[in-house]
């Protein structure tokens, strides 16, 4: 989808050690030449090996790298957002007052951050980082790979640029969501664990010490279906990526003249400013339009299906039985604002996360492709010298 441009001309790179001994411009020296610097040697080897990477592997590698960088940068804000979304789901109800008003101990981004820091320190701010990274790597690797490889198929099928991008986003989102939902459930459970100051009626009914501990306890007490809690609203949330990525491609084309994963021959700051602006605008639009599904998904992921008992030993039923039932309870107990609980934190988290993801993805795409071009030249030059 990029405009026509001359392909990048990569000059042949010839190391001085390959110069002909008969070259008059080079003084006579002993036959033992000094080797190239260690850095040049390592870079050259990397470039030569990168030329052997299959084209189909580039998108998964770039997607995984982008997910890793995004997880590291945004984990503390994700913890705060999850706390705000989940806390209303831990309130206890009685038969006399099934819609009891819930009291919140987490209030606002700064207030929630202070509570977490006071109770759990830096470990609390990065709780759930392990499953987050385990989730982001395959999520973005799968998503960006499927998205890039289905755009032309859907365009040939429907003939519309916008519809093809929307279908590609939905297809890629469905594949990555179904594959990684268990990891995100564990991440959400770890992040939503209650602080010591939480009252009994607002305390999460579990405590996990690690990702593996969470997986074992969830499986033994709630069964395999607990790992797919919140899958329905997560799939409904595919409307988010159906908005974000077509808008991202459109804005990037408008700002830079290049499509997703494409770059000018001569690198420039304007290109990266255009990518940043396209990411910012597309993420703001998508997050604002589709946020309520994230609250519904978090509430479903943070409720136990079975294995929870009250103080008198009686079995407690699941608080929410489905999306419609959950929506009615949230609206009756907490009002419509609860559907946008944590949206401020989400925007503060989501925009840097999206910018980190896309800038890393685009940079890796450019770096790998450039290394492949240079590596091919180096390999060709080396073969000519040996012959």
UniProtKB/TrEMBL annotation:
- Each Solcar repeat occupies one of these ranges, namely 54-153, 160-254, 270-367
Q: Write one Pfam family the protein is assigned to.
A: Mito_carr
Q: Where can this protein be found?
A: Mitochondrion inner membrane
Instruction: Say if the entry is tagged with keyword Ribosomal protein.
Output: no
* Keyword tags: Membrane, Mitochondrion, Mitochondrion inner membrane, Repeat, Transmembrane, Transmembrane helix, Transport
Q: What segment(s) does the record annotate as region Disordered?
A: 1-38
Membrane topology listed for this record: Multi-pass membrane protein
What is an example of a GO molecular function annotated in this UniProt entry? pyrimidine nucleotide transmembrane transporter activity
Q: Name one GO cellular component term.
A: mitochondrial inner membrane
Q: Which InterPro entries match?
A: MCP, MCP_dom_sf, MCP_transmembrane, SLC25A33/36-like
**Residue ranges with Polar residues bias:** 17-35
The UniProt similarity line reads:
Belongs to the mitochondrial carrier (TC 2.A.29) family.
Q: What is this protein called?
A: Mitochondrial thiamine pyrophosphate carrier 1
> Can you name the source organism?
Exophiala bonariae
């Amino acid at each position: 989808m990029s405009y026509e441009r001359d392909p990048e001309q990569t000059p042949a790179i010839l190391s001085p050690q390959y110069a002909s001994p008969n070259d008059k411009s080079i003084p006579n020296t002993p036959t033992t030449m000094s080797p190239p610097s260690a850095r040049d040697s390592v870079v050259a080897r990397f470039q030569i090996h990168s030329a052997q990477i299959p084209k189909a592997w580039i998108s998964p590698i770039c997607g995984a790298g982008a997910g890793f960088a995004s997880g590291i940068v945004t984990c503390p804000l994700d913890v705060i957002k999850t706390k705000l979304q989940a806390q209303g789901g831990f309130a206890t109800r009685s038969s006399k007052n099934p819609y009891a008003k819930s009291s919140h101990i987490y209030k606002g981004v700064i207030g929630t951050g202070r509570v977490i820091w006071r109770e759990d320190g830096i470990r609390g701010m990065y709780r759930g980082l392990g499953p987050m990274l385990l989730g982001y790597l395959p999520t973005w690797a799968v998503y960006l790979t499927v998205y890039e490889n289905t755009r032309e198929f859907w365009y040939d099928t429907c003939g519309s640029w916008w519809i093809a991008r929307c279908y590609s986003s939905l297809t890629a989102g469905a594949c990555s969501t179904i594959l990684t939902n268990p990891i995100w459930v564990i991440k959400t459970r770890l992040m939503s664990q209650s602080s010591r100051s939480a009252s009994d009626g607002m305390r999460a009914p579990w405590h996990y010490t690690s990702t593996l501990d969470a997986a074992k306890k969830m499986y033994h007490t709630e069964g395999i279906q607990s790992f797919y809690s919140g899958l329905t609203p997560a799939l409904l949330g595919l409307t988010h990526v159906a908005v974000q990525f077509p808008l991202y491609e459109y804005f990037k084309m408008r700002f830079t003249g290049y499509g997703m994963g494409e770059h000018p021959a001569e690198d420039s700051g304007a290109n990266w400013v255009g990518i940043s602006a396209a990411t910012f605008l597309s993420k703001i639009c998508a997050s604002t339009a589709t946020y309520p599904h994230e609250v519904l998904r978090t509430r479903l992921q943070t409720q136990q299906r079975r294995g929870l008992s009250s103080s008198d030993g009686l079995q407690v039923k699941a608080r929410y039985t489905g999306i419609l039932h959950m929506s009615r309870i949230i609206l009756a107990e907490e009002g419509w604002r609860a559907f946008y609980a944590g949206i401020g934190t989400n925007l503060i988290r989501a925009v840097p996360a999206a910018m980190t993801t896309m800038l890393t993805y685009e940079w890796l795409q450019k770096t790998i492709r450039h290394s492949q071009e240079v590596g091919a030249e180096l390999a060709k030059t080396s073969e000519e010298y040996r012959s």
